[in-house]
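@channel sequence for tomorrow's demo:
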Amino acid sequence: MSITYTIDGVNVTAEPSDTILTSATRAGVEIPTLCFDARTAIYGACGICLVEVEGVPKLLRACSARPQEGYVVHTDSPRVERARKTALELLLSDHTGDCRGPCKLNCPALTDCQKYVGEIREGRYKDAVSTIYQAFPFPASIGHVCPHPCEDACRRQMVEEPLSIAFLKAFAADKIEADGDPYVVQCEPSTGKHVAIVGGGPAGLTAAYFLRRYGHDVTIYDKQPKMGGMLRYGIPEYRLPKAVLDREIKIIADAGVQMINDVRLGKDLDFDDLRQRYDAVLLALGAWKSYNMRVPGEDLEGVIGGIEFLEQLGLGERPTIGERVAVCGGGNTAMDCCRTAVRLGAKEVYVVYRRTRAEMPASDVEIDEAEEEGVTFKYLTNPIEFYGKDGRLTGMKLQIMELGEPDASGRRRPVPVEGATEDIAIDNVLMAIGQGANCEGVDGELLTQRGTIACDDMTFRTAIDNVFAAGDVTNRGAGIAIEAIAEAQKAAFCINNYLEGDEVRRKIPYFVTQEVTPEEFEDRPKQNREKMPGLSPEERRGNFDPIYFGFSEEQALREASRCLECGCHDYYDCRLIRFANAFDIDPDRFAGIKHDREEVPVVSEVIVHDPDKCVLCGLCYRMCEQEVGKTFLGLYNRGFSTVVNPMVPKEAREFCASCLKCVEACPTGAMKSVPAVERVTQIV
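structure tokens (generated this afternoon):
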């Protein structure tokens, strides 16, 4: 006789043999569980499937509790959520591994580097580009210019050298373009909502791309003749060919984003008018003003802002400079300035930096290549005066510095050496010590004391209801392009939620991580990083030709094969991490001793088991025994020391290689099958 009851207001019909979980699943109501599988007997181990029944004093395990006529069941009451959260935190307090590789976690945009590198290794270049487009829409452009924080975290450097992740990104995008198979943006049906974006740089274009994918109509306004922002007007041609940028902007335009150039906020656009005409407005104005140093002589002719200098070049003009040029600053903009000065014909080019190379924020390759091109680095020096004749710069006085105690940034503070100075003769100084925003036309109540736009770090909302901000113009100020892109990606998510009437705040995803040491990779054969072919230093001077040729397909495949595949192989199917993020867990509440055990072969070399990922749900050995009819797996020991133990008769290896039901059933990625190629290698 059937039983009728309700779950979260849904009428459910159950048979006497049903549990609350099985009948709820059939009715389309999801109750989270880790240890249940309909092919095995009820186990009730994980404690995640708890539900509350009106009139019943204790919470019930839905996987084992039988429904009764008239039950009123709640799966999402505060009491249930607290209990599930506690159960998950207890499980995760002794769960060790890498949900995602450190490359992804170190990318501001959380690009799935490991996934697209693996797709390149398998020759699936279109899939690799599609993976990148899930994070941002500039795989080739960012592949050319990104200072790649992902590579700084790559564990391959514990073997020899980090993976060339950025160049692989560019390779995949260039390859599908050369094959005539460009990426096409897939958009949701139109929502009828309209968003205005002010600023067509990496942040504005990224936000437009995501908002268009959500189905909104998007219009970008930009002050420059062409879209691209700092990617076009702040990065020289030799680093980023503008034809590459153009084709990636066209992909966004082809998705239906309207782009309007040569309009300025406060002049051609009225801020209040935008707010009223559009459902939401995103301010992505960038940072187009070079900071000055507040030293005497900065008003002399020949002292030029670094970003203004690069912008002039990007507009197609050829800045006039003398034979002796000094660049003040130590970041990548300073490197672009000094290397551009070389190409414009300067005979002597200096970089003046008040710390040492070790503290310099510019990427090592930029510094190395600048030195190859003839740039002289004057470390531990700081300008204290610019002087000239008839209003024209002729030289600068430098204070000699030494390093003192670390400052708030963690770098040792430069302090003057009393009485130690140096004079150098120069014709131009390019100021590249930092950049600020020009927020002309923006409502003054939105601005911080630094002149940036104040917005919430988790929602990107400003003090005005439908106005958001992202990129270099926000609280933190100017950064690298991928950071601006990351903000825009998140801002688009929040704007979409706002337009749909949902909670605007985004959640920071939870990942399990682990520390590793070089000793763990001692058995890996060394395979040096592929060298990017390109122009020699002599060929680079005097022209703006692209300095790199790009990887050949053979190089890209070799480089991609170096990946150590640090992230969990089962991440996308892992129920544990999905539930952990759904319930905002905090495993540190139950901090204590954590196991540190190696992966072990469960069935010869066919299947391996990571006991530190295992939550002892029992699905693997129950599946083996109850579904397959074998007893190749079991539990060994008791309590905190319990592990899945192999029971390995002679028939196991051949049988398990074709079965793998234990691997399929594992909810946490603790069980993993070993590919046949790797098995052969191990046997040999």
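heads up for whoever presents: Residues 676-684 have pLDDT under 50 and may be disordered.
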